[in-house]
Every structure is written in C-alpha cells, then in structure tokens.
Amino acid sequence: MSPHTGTDTRRSCVRPPHFDILWLPRAAMRSVEGDPSDCVLVVGVSRPKMAATILVIMLLSLFLTFHILYDSALNSLQAASNDRPRPPTLLFSKQFYPSATRRLPQAIIIGVRKCGTRALLEMLSLHPAIQKAAGEVHFFDRDENYYRGLDWYRMKMPHSYPEQITIEKSPSYFVTPEVPERIRAMNSSIKLLLIVREPVTRAISDYTQLRSHAATAPSFTFGTSSPQRSFQQLALHSNGSINEAYRPLAISVYHNYIHRWLETFPREQILIVNGDLLIEDPLSQIQRIEDFLGLESKISTHNFYFNETKGFFCLRNETSDRCLRETKGRKHPRVDPLVISKLRRYFAEHNQKFYELVGEDMGWPEE
Ligand SMILES: *[C@@H]1O[C@H](CO)[C@@H](O)[C@H](O)[C@H]1NC(C)=O
Ligand SMILES: *[C@@H]1O[C@H](CO)[C@@H](O)[C@H](O)[C@H]1NC(C)=O
Ligand SMILES: *[C@@H]1O[C@H](CO)[C@@H](O)[C@H](O)[C@H]1NC(C)=O
Ligand SMILES: *[C@@H]1O[C@H](CO)[C@@H](O)[C@H](O)[C@H]1NC(C)=O
C-alpha cells in the first residue's frame, strides 16, 4: 500500500452534491494514512441533521422577528391617527377583526366661527365612539377642494371602526352659500352640529382674532388702514350708526345663514349647541349631543375640570389630558359698555328671527 497524499484521499471520498468542498477524509487532517471511507464534514458542523435543524430554527425565528416588527410598526402607525386600542394582533388574526378604514363623516360641525367649534370637537373626541378629523378640512366651502371629489375628502378623515362616528369641523361652512346643498349631495341624512354664542361676544372675539392675524401679516396687504382700528371704530360709523357690513357683525346675524340650512335639511338633523353654556356647564350640552348622535352616554363630570393654576378648562380621559384656552390666549379688548348695549339692541330683533327659525330661545341679553 502506497502512502496516501491529501488529494488522493479526497478523491476517494463520496461527495454529497451541495457540500462538495466541505467533505474531507479524516486522514487529510491528520496528514497520515487513514481509512479513505472515513469521511467527515469539516466546515461549521460535523452533523448534517443538526445543521438542518439549526437552519430551520434560525429561519423560523427570523420570520417571527419580522412578523412582530411589522405588526408593531403597523400598530404604531395606526395609533398615530387612531387612539383607540386595536385588538391584539396574533399571527394571521387580522382577518378576524374588521379593520379601521377612512370613512366619510356621519356628522359635521358647520360653525359658527369663534363660538367654540374647537372646544366642542375636543370634548366630543373624549368619547370612545368618536373619531375626529385633524384640522379644518374646508372641503365643501373651497371650490379647489370640492372639485377634487369625495375620495379626496375621505382621505382627510381619520381611521375609524364601523361602529364609530367620524366627525369634522370647518366653521366657514355655515356662512358659505354653496355648502348646504353640497353636503346634502354627499349624505342627505347626515347630522349637523351648529354651535352659537351670544352675537356681540362672538363679534368681539372675531375682531380680536382678525386683529391678531393682521398684526402678524405683512402691512401692505392692509393698505392705508394699517394703524389698528378699535372694535368700536369698525363696528360703528362715524355718525354712530351700526356698520352692518362689518364682517364680524354680519356673521353674528345667524338667521341670515341658518335659513338656507333649514331649507336643505330637516330641522331634526341640525342640533344647535349653546357655546356659552358649553364652557359654563359642558356636561348639559355634551349629553344632548351624545343623544343626538345616537351614542351611549360615556362622557361624565370626570372628563372635565378647571385648572385654577392655569385658569383653563381642561379635558381628560384614560389616554389624554389637555387644556383649552377659550380665546387661544388672546385677551378681548375692553369695549365701551354703551357700545355693547347699542349692539345688543341691534341684535335683539335678529336674535328673535333666529329663535323663530330654529324653534329655540337662546335667552341672549337684549341690551
Ligand atoms: C381620549 O381622548 C383623546 C383625545 O380627545 C381621543 O383621541 C381618544 O380616543 C380618547 N380615548 C378614549 C379611550 O376614549
Ligand atoms: C349618512 O349619515 C347618517 C347619519 O349620521 C349615517 O347613519 C349614514 O351611514 C350616512 N350614510 C353614508 C352613506 O355615509
Ligand atoms: C351714517 O353713515 C353711514 C356711512 O357713512 C351711512 O351709510 C348712514 O346712512 C349714516 N346714517 C345716518 C343715520 O346718518
Ligand atoms: C394645573 O396646571 C398646573 C400647571 O401646569 C399643573 O402643575 C397642575 O398639576 C395642574 N392641576 C391639575 C389638577 O391638573
């Protein structure tokens, strides 16, 4: 028997098809003569069965890791737009739960601006069955949005579950002539919420906001009127009569706008919310709204508190705690009480017309 060289023994070994470079005779390692049929797997593992098992386990755990990562990413993505906890996702269990999708609103807060539409929306969203759209969508009042179609509108809505109500608010809907008909074309049985405040208070609040916006805007857009004019200068003509064309006053003449809504929708589909009461006694108003929307009463005194330190009204539920500032931090200017009385007398007759149209007396002061 001639002494074997490494290459000789390698050639005599049986090669499994896929690991051909891995198989060496034991003799090759010892570099002495050995039994050429005595072959071992050198690289990595010496037992193919164990190798296969380890490979399977590795692949399985890799798959599971990615599945869990994918699910948690999906969960946190949804949580960003939808605070309701999802049912836990187990392997392939998604198909057993109806998933959250974007739906057209079943209720809209149509206005009026500066009457607490934001506060109302925030309060309602404490309810687990309500999903609110972020920001003001301005779909029905702006042609450039309206002509993008309902699918564009739907994509602006939050994710919701079938038993939930989607709600959005855009205060300029109330005063834009085309809006009632456009909303009816989308859903003739939709529920509408209109929040109103005492008209003179609303007008002053409107003036305050416009003035604060004007102060931060480039001056040339305001032309010669740049020195800031007081509420009184804008609301009254120099001869003392009321400037009915002044926009903050015009918007407070609610009956001029509500009549169009009442011609388009049955009265039962519109709920009038008293914005002054909403701040003084939120629960009374919220319970009416839950009832109107056909929801179980879930919001309670526990959800509202007044923070004495901050001086703000605050809202909380299991998952969130936030405080509202009625005027978003802007202080109302002092307006001469005589001017306020004058304006209230002017509004008295308009308010009566509004009460008659909606069939509710809001009890606003007449001077
Ligand atoms: C709590 O309130 C927040 C914000 O208003 C809302 O998004 C969330 O869905 C509410 N959570 C529950 C459990 O109702
Ligand atoms: C229309 O609005 C009503 C009232 O909220 C709602 O029940 C209904 O599902 C809505 N219809 C469509 C098609 O969204
Ligand atoms: C007061 O002035 C306004 C505009 O300057 C005018 O339209 C109005 O008729 C005047 N009213 C009276 C009572 O003179
Ligand atoms: C009220 O607000 C203050 C200041 O932000 C805060 O420290 C305090 O905890 C709040 N009180 C309550 C009852 O939430």
Automatic annotation (TrEMBL):
The keyword Transmembrane helix applies. Disulfide bonds join C314-C323. GO terms for cellular component: Golgi membrane. Keywords: Disulfide bond, Glycoprotein, Golgi apparatus, Membrane, Signal-anchor, Transferase, Transmembrane, Transmembrane helix. Pfam families: Sulfotransfer_1. It is a single-pass type II membrane protein. The active site is at K114 (for sulfotransferase activity). The chain crosses the membrane at residues 50-70. One of its GO terms (molecular function) is [heparan sulfate]-glucosamine 3-sulfotransferase activity. It is found in: Golgi apparatus membrane. It comes from the Eukaryota. 3'-phosphoadenylyl sulfate binds at K114, C115, G116, T117, R118, R197, S205, K328, G329, R330, K331, H332. The keyword Glycoprotein applies. Its EC number is 2.8.2.23. Residues 105-352 form the Sulfotransferase domain. It catalyses: alpha-D-glucosaminyl-[heparan sulfate](n) + 3'-phosphoadenylyl sulfate = 3-sulfo-alpha-D-glucosaminyl-[heparan sulfate](n) + adenosine 3',5'-bisphosphate + H(+). It is an enzyme of class 2 (transferase). This is Heparan sulfate glucosamine 3-O-sulfotransferase 5. It comes from Agrilus planipennis.
